[in-house]
Design a protein that fits this description.
Length: about 150
């Protein structure tokens, strides 16, 4: 009978060791999947060390926000998650003669889902006024997620 107990105890210990190692390995993957980040494109028109300078420059655009990043104030004139909208905004800003820099940042799934709702309207829009209004709403959404 003692032999059976040793075998059962050994099997439980080996099984526990494998379960622990398996859990340890998969738990980091589960955390990575649940905290998945999505890359979005910011259309940056200027970068300033002074908030006042950024605010003065921001007045040149119909839709823009100031985004503070590592001590710099970035004037953001557009935001896109899907490639079609990125291309549409590139074309829109280029046609207006606006110089910009595309900056990639990572955001969470909740934000990108909300942004997608606006992008559905943006991709169908052809009038400048509508594009500006939707773009401004997307920028305000971005600001609300930062705070």
């Amino acid at each position: 009978m003692k032999t059976y107990l040793k075998i059962i105890l050994g099997a439980v210990l080996v099984g526990s060791l494998f379960a622990y190692l398996f859990y340890k390995d998969i738990s980091s993957e589960v955390v990575a999947i649940t905290n998945k980040e999505y890359e979005i494109t910011l259309f940056q028109a200027g970068v300033f060390k002074s908030y006042d300078n950024a605010q003065n420059y921001q007045n040149n655009f119909d839709a823009s926000i100031i985004y503070e990043d590592d001590g710099y104030y970035r004037v953001i004139i557009g935001i896109a998650y899907h490639e079609e909208n990125k291309v549409k905004l590139e074309s829109f800003f280029t046609s207006k003669g606006i110089n910009y820099y595309e900056k990639e940042i990572k955001m969470n799934e909740e934000f990108t889902s909300s942004l997608t709702n606006y992008e559905l309207v943006l991709i169908e829009s052809t009038e400048d006024k509508v594009i500006n209004n939707v773009n401004n709403s997307m920028l305000q959404l971005f600001l609300s997620y930062l705070t």
